[in-house]
Amino acid sequence: MQKLHGKLCAIACIVLGILAANGVSGAAVMSVDFGCEWMKVAVVSPGVPMEIALNKESKRKTASMVAFRDGIRIFGEDAQNIGVRFPQNSYGYFLDLLGKSIDNPVVELYRKRFPYYKIEADPKRNTVVFRVGDDVFSVEELVAQLLQKAKEFAESTAEQKITECVIVTPGYFGQAERAALIAAASLANLKVLQLMNDYTAVGLNYGVFRKNQINETAQYYVFYDMGAYKTSAAVVSFQLVKDKTTRETNPVISVLGVGYDRTLGGLEMQLRLRDHLAREFNKMKKTKTDVFTNPRALAKLFKEAGRVKNVLSANANHYAQIEALLDDQDFKVQVTREQFEGLCTDLFERVPHVINRALTASGLSMDVVTQVILFGGGTRVPKVQEILKNTIKQDLGKNLNSDEAAAMGAVYRAADLATGFRVQKFLTKDAVVLPIQVVFEREGDSGSMKQVKRTLFGPMNPYPQKKVITFNKHTSDFTFDVNYSELDHLDKGEIPFLGSLNLSRVALSQVGETLKEHLVENVESKGIKAHFAMDDSGIFALSGVELVYEKSVTEAAEEDDESPLSKLGSTISKLFSSEKSEKEETQKEDSDKEETTSETQSEESKPVNETQEIPATSESAQEKTEPKDEEAQAQNKTEKPRIVTVKQAIPSDVTYLFTQPLTEDLYQESKKKIDALDELERQRTRRETALNALESFVIEANQRMDQNEYSSCALPEEIEKIQKSCAETSDWLYEDGSDADAKTYEEKLKELKKLTNDVYARHWEHTERPEALKALKGMLDGAEKFLKSARNLTKDANAEKDVFTAVEIETLEKAIRETAEWRQAEEQEQKKLARNDAIRLTVKSIADKMALLDREVKYLVNKLKIWKPKLKEKKAKSNETEKKESEEEEVIAEEEQTGKDEDGPQIEEPEVPVDDGEKSEPPHGEL
Questions:
Q1: How open is the CA angle 201-206-208, to the nearest 5 degrees?
Q2: Which of 88, 324, 325, 619 has the fewest CB atoms lying closer than 10 Å?
Q3: Any residues with CB less than 8 A from the CB of 165 and at least 6 apart, and which?
Q4: For residue 539, how many other CB atoms are within 10 A of its CB?
């Protein structure tokens, strides 16, 4: 009960934390934790707390699999089931193939693990494509289709369209993988607000629910994740930090160190157990066929190995058993936990390496770590927990929902980034796992060319962040490369998995012409500056290249050079800022929140100070004029020219050296392919819906014609026609109509409905009429009671309360009388008719009569609400007399009204009672 109370309190905190912005109607947003084995989807909409979106089977996670069979596309667990029978048609565990060329070791490992897939090289990009019959699907296309399904789940939960999302990714994803994932999301009609590393998303979720425990002192945690495909560990800190600009204090999660092992996970353990079961079956010699050569048998063994692995987490032994594994031979063998652990001995030896790498990268030791938090399905393996506990010498944190923590943390971030939400701030600072450097050549002192390396983003540098490199010795067109660097912190076996270590080549043009045109007399060059950025998705980009120089100008010359619009802007700015502040802002523009490297540094690759730009050491940069004191500057202010900074863009062309992203043509080709599959699925769904509707209607119509309450409402010839048509349709469905299209089924249903409409309408009228008549009687009784009260509010009855005229009273009285007479007469006439005769007293006619009577009553009620007493001429009285009269008026008001407003007395509309019998609502509304 206490745990439940805690969960409710936590949810209440989130409800309070995520609110729709005032006056803003925001759309829902989603997050997707796209794992290699399972996909979890979370959603948040205005006014509704974060929640996990359920799939069509009402489950909280969906298998990351898509299958193609007989032109039908199948997802999730259904695709898993298809994969047991037709393994070559069901695709999973392909996330790590994103952005990989066909010759990458990751692809070779995938072939080895799943030998039944037909993997080919894309002829244009040299990436991985899966062949499905005559069709091929790229990894981006498969991921896009799963993201579309995730979008459906989220929209079903939020009950509105969703176009924005945050996607959880492995932290070791490089530039190629991240670009490919964003392209896949675009194919799924999703705008990616951010790609969020899995450990950062989990850490955010952990911190959001424990905000009260975070203070100004940094608290260090390790989040250890063993999933199906990989294992990672991240050292993070939680701390309250005061923003220098807004002066607000917010909690911040900072990633300080990361370690990972790409091939250590539950999948590898499952594959080893699969191979062990296969060897055991071969030893039994039940068939001459080697089970390893049969894809279907391997798929069955793989599924059973996963089941047994999960059971062994809680039991010491368990039986693996499969009916008709191969050549109709059954298979059953006992597997002990000890045997399973023996199969994975080398894998378990790698478990502590991941956490040790993370600690080394962070520069911290376990002494300062508060707790190691586990998440990911692989951490449930008892041996893994035992090894970790022996490594860290403390208890493990297991109080996290390991399946959903990443999705919930990411959806909180999505609400923060999307419009229409006001979220309690919780800042995130991620860290660079794959460092990036710039490499270029320049002429040395001896005239020979030297290679120079400059680190842009070193290991564990925080991001998002901007950097600038200054080239101050190039006088003609040149190129530079952007590469991965400083990978010593990674395992040597990991380097080949990264693919190309060269990311891009940037070619600068018109350098000589630009320098010649702008570096004239009285101009000092500040170099060619290349601006780089790494956004919060971890994607690196060149923002732009420009020549920066300073020149001396007089005020008059500057005005001549300025356009009329610029002059107006300068005039306005002078009203609010001094010349000194303008100069300071100009100088600060390039260096604020940017890291700068200088071309004249030593050729070694080394990080640069993040807060200031390293000055160039060329002769032009060293020639500085000694500043004068303020008095002298003030005296010579009119004579001294101003120093202005000018930026001139330099054209740059970027060529990607890693796996080529989707070009516009290839993107449109993939989009058409997915759209065609979507249309086929819509047509298939429409056909199935139409077929089910027709079959259900035929069965229901036959049954109703055998029931007296329906058959009594039909003429004999009508019953005969309906039964005959139903029989013909039923025969057609199981013969010629079994392959008909949706339109044919819909037309058949339309014809049947024409035959049954009159019968069903009569039945409905007979069923609903008693309730409608009951409602009419209740309205008549209420109107009578109101009329009785209204007669006392006329001039003849009460001179001071002349609310209604005699004509109005007579009109209402007449409406009540005529309605009552009509009800009695029509009811008697309807009783004379049989149930299969044409309806005389319809529900609609009763509703129309109620509407007419309601209009007359409401007219008088509204008049009563706005009525005010007429002022009478009175002589001046003493205060005591006035008070007495006021008290008398209040007594009268209490007797005749229920309250009064500022404008005077007001009488409430009298309640219209219903019969003493069972209370019911009229079908067409209430008075």
A1: 95
A2: 619
A3: 29, 30, 31, 32, 151, 185, 190, 191, 192, 193, 414
A4: 16
Q: Could you tell me which of 15, 49, 46 has the C-alpha nearest to residue 162?
A: 46
- pLDDT at position 619 is 30
**Do 913 and 782 contact (CB within 8 A), yes or no?**
yes
Count of other CB atoms within 10 angstroms of residue 135: 12
Cα separation, 434 vs 538, in Å, equals 10
CB 141 within 8 A of CB 183: no
Report the pLDDT value the prediction gives residue 718, as an integer from 0 to 100. 93
Element (H, E) at 830: helix 806-831
Residues 6 or more apart in contact with residue 922 via CB below 8 angstroms:
771, 772, 774, 775, 776, 778, 779, 847, 850
Closest CA to 222 of 409, 373, 357: 373
| Count of C-beta atoms within a 10 Å radius of residue 509 | 16
User: For residue 256, what are the CA distances in angstroms to 155, 237, 405, 432, 504?
Assistant: 36, 7, 20, 10, 27
Do the strands 48-52 and 65-69 form a parallel or antiparallel pair, or are they unpaired? Answer: unpaired
The predicted-structure confidence for 285-335, as pLDDT tens digits, reads as follows 999 999 999 999 999 999 999 999 999 999 999 999 999 999 999 999 999
The low-confidence residues of the chain, meaning pLDDT below 50, are: 1-25, 563-628, 630-634, 873-878, 880-881, 884-886, 888-927
Whose structure tokens read 């564990």? 460
Rounded Cα distance between 209 and 228, Å, is 26
Length of the chain: 927
- pLDDT value, residue 627: 42
- Bridge partners of 239, per DSSP, are 252
How far apart CA 305 and CA 744 sit, in angstroms, is: 47
Beta strands 523-534; 465-471: pairing state = antiparallel
CB 885 within 8 A of CB 756: no
Residue 533 and residue 427: Cα distance in Å, rounded?
A: 19
The CA-atom distances, in angstroms, between 566 and each of 316, 572, 573, 578 are 80, 10, 10, 17
DSSP code at position 394: S
What residues contact 755, with CB distance under 8 A and at least 6 apart?
718, 721, 722, 725
Q: How far apart are CA 649 and CA 281, in angstroms?
A: 70
Burial track 304-327 (b if 16+ CB lie within 10 A, e otherwise): bbbebbbebbeeeebebebeebbe
In contact, 211 and 249? CB cutoff 8 Å: no
The pTM of the full predicted model, rounded to 2 decimals, is: 0.76
pLDDT tens digits along 842-861: 999 999 999 999 999 999 99
Report helix, strand or coil for 152. Answer: helix
* 408-443 per-residue burial string, b: 16 or more CB within 10 A, e: under 16: bbbbbbbbbebeebbbbebebbbbbbbbbbbbbebe
Tokens 């699999």 locate to 65
HSE-up of residue 316 (Cα within 13 Å, Cβ side): 0
- Number of Cβ within 10 Å of residue 535's Cβ equals 15
Q: What is the dihedral of CA 726, 729, 733, 734, to 10 degrees?
A: 70
What is the structure's pLDDT at 818? Answer: 94
The span from the CA of 326 to the CA of 918, in Å, is 68
β-pairing verdict for 540-553 and 594-598:
unpaired
- Tokens 């962040």, residue located: 465
